[in-house]
């Protein structure tokens, strides 16, 4: 029972930390660009402001439009809660393995795209079209990388996989390196970061995610913004805790949890810096360069698989 | 997988050799392709040095240094210089059907794995696994010469074939006798110089380095052009 | 209750279906009130029969007083038959409820309602006979009954030349496929020494002959199932039939082909080989990807659904291919996992494709429109159909917590066990199949975002669609049943897997023993450590978060203010400003352009206006069908030379043929 209670706490921690990561990346990016930037607490203020505001909706919108923010938020939050943040003693991980997590993210994307098409504006349709286009390219690479990892981990349960990695000796595997690169590329595409999408753009023809949520306002917009931040934290956690699991607690012991929390914050903060640096250095690609970008992810995943098959087995 | 960390590092670097072959195959910018080639040389040199360290084979250190000097420093430097003199620094070659080319290369990797499989199973030495990678690098180098039209890139393909052969020699038989290696290294160097001369010759006679234009030289199609 | 009862019920269901066919020829009032209820009842009885067989297990046989003197028709009921019988039953039941309201729309038309009712009954009876047949002779007769009666249903709207052409193509392909199946049975019969399935099971087959039989069966059943490259008839034939028939054809008849393949390969041949698995995986994954890409390009809703059937059958065959591979390599547990995944997806596809075709029928009924580009905003006009169609779309897009996700999850779990296989080549092959499956999943989601977004959301793009109205209660009920089943199979997978588990356990001798070892909440196909999925909890938590969110964030006191769309400040939004289906898929069309034959450009019309046109065709036509058709024409032109008109030359040919035969006889 205490595991379930802690799972709930961890899920709430996801909610609490998600805006912070977004704020941190913005701050680092601003500093790298010689700006002072907003406070790292700014995303919280934005959410607070939006929740307090009145929501306004087009009269052409249907119930799907109204329900979408809640479904998107619920699906992403549930997916996040199944990823080990601090401890591998996580009952939700048995409830939803990595494929279910992918499915839940798919559910959120499905409703987001439908909501984009609902009001009947050209922007929404454009955003929906591009969103599904990118996901169609990203999904095979993601699954191929998962497949590569599952070849060594022999499980799709993330908590078990992370737990197994924690007890094994330090290792260096080409397949993990390639899979890591593949997952990083996929994550950049899935979370809509530069160079695939620009989260801070409102330029009419380049936006993808922003175009989808253009018609939302008030608390509905707040939920969607929060969900997007949650998704970023979800993927960041996935990256650091699967590929650098060291520090994650294997039981709910106060000391272990404390160490895990500190290490987690450090890891995520470093990842945020890396993301900010890459976003400062790179320019957004035009949409038809994205297949090249994501095919590279697929190639990496496949090379990871091949090097697992060729180099790591039978030795 | 019971390997020492050193051995794991060797394997990672071998995977890096394979990766750089793919990167070279796909790279459209000429000067970046040359850097990638240097990177591949670096990986090969490091693999060689690490095998030398893990198996206590002193003569492999010389090979590693040879590879480093030749493939990482000298040849890339010569190529860069020629590319600058031919004013191709900013040259981009567009590859037709890049996805198909990459898929073909992946097919070659699987094929060479399948080919080497009996060999790997008979001997349990871990470097044997690298033989498949080397063979793949050789085949991808050849593929590169087939699908890329730019003469400089073709030279890169040729040189990466040599990389693959060298890696195979190092991993399968702990390297060739030093004399042979020196001879091969010298050959490569001579080839490089000859290529350099040819670049200018080709350029002067057909005003391009696109080898597809060389089919003007056939007798049959002379009247069509 | 016993398996014999199941067999008797199945026979009863067939009699009811035949009765419903007969009653259709009675006067209109009788037909209207009796035929379809009989059909519905037949479906219900078949469903019960199938469930009884699945729950009890075992085998029951009987002889029908029909057939040849030395080969009376044998029928047999076992879990496999029962499983597919219940698929037939459940969809027919829903279709039977739906159909009266839908068919009423045709009463003013010129086409014969008698023929429609009669062939519908015969079609159902044919399908049921196929799954309980126990000898090759009866199997083929039932198979042809199914094919022929569905041919007449495809050709029912025979006023359009295109429909007649589609029906003819369907007939042609069905017969080529039937021939191939017949030859396959011939191989088994000659080794087994008889046409009964019992004799065929004991046939001692060498690898070579077994492979010949396998290839023939794969071609025959694959053709019926619409696997690439033999799929081209399917998107022509299925959409032109009335929608409830399309639901039966796509939802059920394709499953009968799957049944035939399973019966033939896993039961009759028995010993499987990994090479077969590779072949099935290649064609299955190709069908999945090419099917969904072509579906994505369609703007005719029913054609789109038909192409999507190609894709789903591809996924089912991927499951079967994995099962072949793992069984042949000596991993029966993983093999049965893949097998159960294929079975689960068969049920799922029957349910959601049936549901979606019924939804398309409802749109056709109330707005008389099949073209997506003219739809829009239907959710507001047909809220129930819209809701059910949404359920179908989520299910088919394999999203939790609906049923499509469960079978997708099971397939992935089976494929992810590839590390058990010997040989890296097979392992990397399976991983390519996995990534193709993932690609398929993402593209299906794209397809149904397009369908739902263009048809049900946004604003109406034509006047008829703006005037669309609600459909009768019976039609909504038919869709509702299927939608509820989609949800049930999605959130209670352990119950259904325990039920379906009887099939691999009795047919293949190995089942999933661990699937519900940790209680009904947890689905653990291999072991708890490998992977687990708790669909009830996922659904419950999603629901709780939704309710909490609505309560905390969207409380009723804080109303949402309605106004004009913001649309980035551009005023006056008109329906024609919406993204069209064609525009929606443009990026994907460009990236996967190699797979289609795209013909587009700008043409100047007579009134001087310039218009963009786009035509995306299936490459299979140009690559396979047109060459074959040309070859047939060429060879018949050669044969025409024989027809010189002179009777003596004909007689000379006869003489030559006679001499040749006599010579061969010696």
Q: Categorize the overall geometry of chain C.
A: globular
| Cα radius of gyration of chain C in angstroms | 26 Å
Please bin the fraction of helical residues of chain C.
55-70%
Note the run of SSEs of chain A as H and E.
Answer: HHEHHHHHHHHHH
What is the average per-residue confidence, as pLDDT of chain A, rounded to a whole number? 90
General form of chain A? globular
Low-confidence segments of chain A, ≥5 residues, pLDDT <50?
Answer: none
Structural class of chain A: mainly alpha
The total of beta strands of chain A comes to 1
Q: List segments of chain C where confidence is low: pLDDT < 50 over at least 5 consecutive residues.
A: none
Largest interface: A-C, 91 and 85 residues
Oligomer: heterotrimer
Number of discrete domains of chain A: 1
Q: Please give the share of residues in helix of chain A.
A: over 70%
Instruction: Provide the structure class of chain C.
Output: mainly alpha
Biggest sheet, spatial arrangement of strands of chain C:
1-2
The major β-sheet of chain C equals: 2 strands, antiparallel
Give the radius of gyration of chain A: 19 Å
